Amino acid sequence: MNKQHLETAKQLEIKKAPEEQSTEAANNQYTKKQLTHFIEHHDLDIAKSWKKAEIVEALTEWMETAQKDVLDSNSDLQSFYSESVVNADESLNIYDDNLSDDSLENILKLVEHGLAYNVDGQLWVPAEISAEVSAEDNESSVQVDEPKKEAPKKQTTSNSQSKTTSHSASSSFEKAESIEDQKKARLEYLKKQAKRKKKGKKRK
Known about the structure:
Layout: H1 3-11, E1 13-14, H2 23-27, H3 32-41, H4 52-72, H5 75-86, H6 101-112, E2 117-119, E3 122-124, H7 127-149, H8 151-203
Parallel strand pairs: 1-2
Antiparallel strand pairs: 2-3
């Protein structure tokens, strides 16, 4: 386990989750010293001399933009966040010795962007964020399924073409039979005419 990442995660631990399930309320749980970590780590244009409430407000505004950017630019992090954090059956234990370095690195990125919080060693996500992520996952699923709905239409078109081709072939076959019948009828007619001529000659 990466000790530096683990130490940073411990430094950003808050003792309890806020009653209000929002990023701003969660950020307000940090001490001013902890908030300074975010300012320095991300090189934010926020003065450390500001009042805590002002820092929290500015940090929250930055996070709202940064959260989408960091997830969109990192598909592995996005998958980890969706599967192992937001939609997980149990909260991740950040201090678990069996946690891989990659997982710990992902956890730290999530915490440093306000996508998750280290609440007494457990990874916690504000309800407003988890709801947004779930909604985006559902939209992605719908977009993936949409092309499949077009398949029956193509099949119908194919069937229509098949029927048209079959009908054309049938018509051609019927025409061929009709011509053959006409030839036979013509031949029979000529034979009858020939017989009549022979009979006429005999009578004379």
